[in-house]
Fold this protein.
Amino acid sequence: MKRVALIGGGAANEAQPLLSPLYYLEKALAPFAQIRTARPGVVDPVQALLAEQPNILGLADVGLAPGETFDAVSRFVEEGGTLIRFAGPRLANADDGLLPVRLRRNGRVLGGAMSWEEPKALAEFDATSPFFGLPASKDVTVQRQVLAEPDPGLADKTWARLSDGTPLVTAERRGKGLIVLFHVNADANWSNLPISGLFVEMLKRISAMAGESTSASSERSGMVADPSAFAPMRLLDGFGALGAPGLSAQSIPPGFDGPASAEHPPGLYGGGEAFVAVQTLRPTDEFSAFDFAGAGLSADVLRTSGQLDLRGPLLVFALAAFIADALIALALAGKLRLRPLGAATAALLALSCVGATMDETRAESAPKSSVSQRDKDAALTARLAYVISGDAHVDEISRLGLEALTQALNMRTSFSPGDPVGVDPAKDELAFYPLLYWPIVASAPQPPAKTVAKVTAYMKQGGTIIFDTRDALSQRVGGAPTPEAQWLRDLTKGLDIPPLEVTPRDHVITKTFYLLDGFVGRYANGETWVEALPPEPKDQAARPVRATDSVSAIVITSNDLASAWAHDKRGQPLFPLTPGGARQREFALRGGINLVMYTLTGNYKSDQVHVRDLLERLGQ
């Protein structure tokens, strides 16, 4: 069976049965593959799973930015691995080179530009497609897809099409490996393909091709010349157990009679019911006794000494310890003199020394805790945190702003956070902080790739980051980006983030505690961006509150929130506002409270139970 590593691009709190793309993939691949998924909390799940040497790497809506992870996946494919990718909001907007075709930035959906009036069905599979022979079920329909640019050679890379001719599955050989792209996502949001039997058969055929060299793949795919070669299916390891083949195992030609070698390890080759067994030895090979004398050795070197029976000495030791214990008890009771107990006391001291030595050994071997006191405090008390920018003035504003917001939370809500702290993403553990405020300083150096990967993992595991460029007054519509905006753009190139949109007026983030129209800070003219919500179904009535199944992991603003929150020890504001006024400062503080509550509670305000109260409040 092939080893398949699966990674999803969604946040950890989206990974629910029937909602997670990985759920559908695991169900489809389980009958004929060994599934591997990343452990929770891993900073870079892609490299962690590649270390397990899978045959297939499946990425469900994961964008690969240039860096160590991108290079590792490229090597995996070049050396013969199969990369299966599924589209989604993240991939549709990513600048990714590990794709078989170029993608257009905007996908095609029902009810929008470049849209269909009706969902599209599948077209029959071409004779050159690896899926040829599978029934193109008319029950499988597509509501949304990412489009491929009509470059030369697109037809040769297309394995499956829709009824209007647009590609549904494309593929390309890259080195010794293969890259396959499904132009829909791996769950049922864009298409019902992942819940069909056809999806299982398509993955089964791709899995059968995994690990094959260019000369051993299927001729029907238009990529190979020898369809009669047998790919490794299950191979023997050093302990004689059958398992998934490694990447170094190669297909065997027809008529291969062995023996097994490093390129063709012993095991089963082929697929389905048609497979060939490769033995370690040929049928004509014979066993003969090893000539120890000729090798200058003695057969005694292979003989092991008998077992050492310690039952007697241990019983004597236990009896001596019992007698010593009894004598000491009598001495303490005053029934025996101390002098006759000299030997017993010496024995007891010896036992004590042995026990102390064992305790010291255990103490030395016990793993030392690497958790700092600061992390322990953060784990026990919820706190807001800001990212240290390196600019002392900006960091002080962030600290004072979050202190003021913390005080407001303590006074107005049931949430009582501790004092805010500054964190360095490169050194500090971020998992203890539900919300990070990140003021952008254009002169600061870009964080290294490992830090960016750590930030990405933090957002996928449920954390939210507020990026504040603080440049609302210097932005120009249609003009060049400000230095702060450009710095943030460079940072987000390495972050696997979904598409963003200006916060809609009906977004749940505007109703988590206060009813707001937007988020203002020291400035009021900047826009606030959050994760884009999926399009509303065309035939569904408008809901009172739009919501997604998880909290937006990223919020981007330019209104300088911390400066509007900050005040001195007497409660006096530290910075003037533009256009100004106590009302703007109050609404800035309310916006901060909403952001915190949104991070902590998610979309509970979108439940229908809140509609009546919200309507009554709006009626006032």
Notes: Residues 110-114, 213-227, 360-367, 539-549 have pLDDT under 50 and may be disordered. The CA atoms of residues 320 and 413 lie 68 Å apart.
